[in-house]
Amino acid sequence: MGWEALKRWGDDAARVEPLAGGVANDVWIVRVGGRRAVGRLGSRSDADLAWETGLLVHLDRAGLTVPVPIPAADGRLFADGLVVSAFVDGGPPESPADWRRVAGTVRQLHRLTRDWPQRPGWRSSADLLHAETGTRIDLRAMPAEGVARCRAAWARLAGRPTCVVHGDLNPGNIRLTADHVALIDWDESHVDVPDLDLDLPGNAAGLDAATLDVAAQASAAWEAAVCWKDDHAVSRLAQVRPVG
């Protein structure tokens, strides 16, 4: 159906201008009910979108600033692959103090989602110690030596409690104002060990040296696997220590 689905949000709903940065989705500023919002059109399954929109509603109700889904006229939070969300103001973190604020928000996310069910079709780092595929990850496409390095990094997380991790905390997915720290673009969010979110610039999460090393190695391995084989993935795999 494509962008025709936007009419489910009202006869006056319309696209305004495209937003840069969408990889798996077509993302636009839209106008819904006379206000600015963000429309995201992609090919994710209904089960996947139900998981993500349900998570965002939960986090909003708990007090986190997130792109809250705006219901269509019939009350649904998505339709035909389209999600319309509230526009979130702010800019990226720029200082060590900004990143410490981000770390506090990320830890709150983790507290609010302990034992959350896994995103449909996704695998955690623990699952990938044995599984070869899961959503955007296909370890069969990586060199065997690289897979061994990634699995060795993830094995250090085994047995730890799980929660929802955002999974892509680059500055472009963070919106700061004096009043809030907002996390946007939840395409990579899934259930895993919180350490994957805590390898932040300047060790903003305040991890001890041993914990920081585990987090840094595990997150580098994850980014290598999920993005394989673009230049970023290759550079991240190079940061994962050889086995033995």
TrEMBL record:
Domain Aminoglycoside phosphotransferase residue range list: 16-198
Signal peptide feature range: none
A Pfam family matched in the record: APH
InterPro entries: Aminoglycoside_PTrfase, Kinase-like_dom_sf
Protein name according to UniProt: Aminoglycoside phosphotransferase domain-containing protein
Top-rank taxon, per record: Bacteria
